[in-house]
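Work Package 4 report. The design task specified in the project plan requires that, given a folded chain encoded as structure tokens, an amino acid be chosen for each position. We show below one input record used in the internal validation round.
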């Protein structure tokens, strides 16, 4: 589990505790001679004092208008969130030693990205925290997000900036009202009273922001977590919801209208104190606005999302007007199990002339959508006798189909231009690590270059060393791979130095063992 998820769970647990803290009446709380304890900020201060988050001064004052420093705000926030400040990773700020009173708090909040330092490697713990920094701190710590299109009245907060998103979240939730109706005051220092207001308003808001929940009981499990999410609406591209997890409950907060999906895994603790996944469910999340309020509908679904495979016209070498899909036993797949369509081209305009540029056939792409798991051979063709095959392996993961694919290349020609010199000698080396007894690649020198083709069954890496008449040396390095009965050959031309780097990489991967060919394309 990553640091941020652990932090989110700890934060939610802390909020569950803080939610039951009753704000003390002015008469029941410690009074400060410079604080109006009946005002909203006075009640907020009383809340934090009662919980031991902040203290007053020996002279009976609180000094509400005194700026709060970055170090002080870090120390107070970790108390509110209940974060561990002992078992932390040193963030290596040059001005925050481990003996610094704020070290633990700063390290804990840096680890989960709530706080960050400056470009010069400093944190500046004694510097006053600005309202802009406070906005980022709260939105990150409490996972706050404003609905798309939230408009701010503040003229000093520019659109399309991180500050705008952070301030918009605080404004949307009613956490901030601004310095005045038209100014937020990004660079202004946060005072002790403002800190109390910002944080207590945030906590109060959190109690009501979740519109729907999924619990561990729904999966007959002890612990649950969202293992896959699609928070964005496919049509609008906008964020539909935000999740808040504590290990036993997943809270769903509406952000904007639309549809999304989450996959939730439920686990139980075994006798050996390991976590065993006992259930997995998919939920469709739909958000609508009713009477200006968001309504969230959560529906369990067993449907599996189809997988989309992009086919490039340039790779096929012709315009693929038709496709036929067959299973490995030779049966034609029913057309209802897939769709095939040409993607719309984006026509660019010539900026100088204002005219449309002609469509280039080399950039055309097609989408093949598969709706069932299995191994298939897809044959693309046109009306002029051209044909090309694609091997497909479709499997299911997280209620979605995923596909591996290879385009048929039984032989390839490394052109003379790619080689760059007249070849005097050729040597073929394979890195098959026992997966193939015989050479899998056949290399033949021709007038037009080097022809590579399959020589035997199996998957493997190969390298052909070419030496020129003037002792020049290059390598044609590649792999041969079979999927669903379709062979593909991929290669690249490399120098001796680049070849040494590739060999070192192969050795680090286990001597070229191709047990996981899915990662080989990264070598290319």
């Amino acid at each position: 589990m990553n640091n941020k998820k652990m932090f989110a769970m700890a934060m939610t647990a802390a909020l569950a505790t803080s939610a039951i803290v009753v704000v003390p009446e002015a008469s029941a709380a410690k009074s400060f001679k410079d604080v109006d304890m009946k005002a909203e900020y006075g009640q907020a201060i009383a809340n934090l004092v009662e919980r031991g988050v902040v203290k007053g001064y020996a002279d009976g004052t609180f000094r509400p208008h005194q700026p709060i420093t970055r170090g002080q705000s870090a120390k107070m926030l970790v108390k509110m969130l209940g974060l561990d400040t002992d078992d932390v990773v040193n963030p290596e700020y040059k001005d925050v030693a481990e003996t610094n009173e704020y070290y633990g708090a700063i390290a804990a909040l840096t680890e989960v990205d709530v706080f960050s330092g400056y470009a010069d490697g400093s944190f500046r713990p004694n510097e006053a925290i600005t309202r802009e920094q406070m906005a980022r701190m709260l939105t990150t710590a409490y996972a706050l997000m404003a609905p798309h299109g939230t408009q701010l009245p503040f003229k000093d907060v520019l659109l399309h900036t991180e500050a705008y998103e952070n301030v918009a979240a605080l404004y949307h939730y009613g956490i901030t009202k601004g310095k005045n109706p038209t100014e937020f005051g990004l660079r202004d220092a946060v005072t002790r009273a403002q800190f109390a207001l910002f944080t207590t308003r945030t906590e109060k808001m959190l109690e009501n922001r979740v519109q729907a929940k999924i619990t561990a009981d729904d999966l007959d499990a002890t612990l649950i977590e969202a293992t896959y999410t699609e928070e964005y609406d496919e049509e609008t591209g906008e964020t539909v919801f935000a999740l808040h997890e504590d290990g036993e409950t997943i809270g769903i907060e509406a952000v904007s209208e639309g549809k999304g999906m989450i996959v939730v895994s439920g686990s139980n603790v075994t006798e050996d104190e390991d976590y065993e996944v006992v259930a997995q469910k998919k939920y469709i999340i739909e958000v609508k606005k009713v009477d200006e309020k968001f309504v969230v509908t959560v529906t369990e679904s067993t449907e599996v999302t189809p997988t989309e495979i992009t086919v490039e016209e340039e790779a096929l070498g012709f315009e693929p007007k038709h496709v036929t899909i067959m299973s490995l036993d030779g049966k034609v797949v029913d057309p209802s199990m897939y769709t095939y369509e040409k993607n719309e081209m984006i026509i660019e305009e010539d900026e100088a002339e204002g005219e449309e540029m002609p469509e280039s056939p080399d950039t055309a792409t097609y989408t093949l959508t598969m709706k069932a798991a299995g191994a298939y051979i897809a044959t693309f063709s046109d009306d002029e006798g051209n044909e090309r095959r694609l091997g497909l392996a479709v499997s299911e993961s997280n209620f979605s189909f995923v596909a591996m694919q290879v385009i048929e290349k039984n032989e390839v020609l490394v052109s003379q231009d790619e080689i760059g010199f007249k070849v005097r000698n050729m040597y073929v080396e394979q890195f098959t690590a026992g997966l193939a007894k015989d050479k899998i690649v056949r290399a033949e020198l021709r007038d037009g270059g080097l022809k590579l083709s399959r020589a035997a069954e199996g998957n493997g890496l190969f390298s052909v060393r070419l030496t020129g008449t003037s002792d020049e040396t290059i390598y044609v390095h590649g792999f041969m791979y079979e999927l669903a009965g379709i062979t593909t050959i991929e290669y690249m031309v490399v120098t001796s130095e680049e070849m040494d780097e590739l060999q070192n990489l192969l050795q680090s991967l286990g001597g070229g063992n191709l047990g996981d060919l899915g990662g080989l394309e990264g070598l290319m």
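The two ends are 31 Å apart (CA to CA). Validation will be extended to a larger panel in the next phase.
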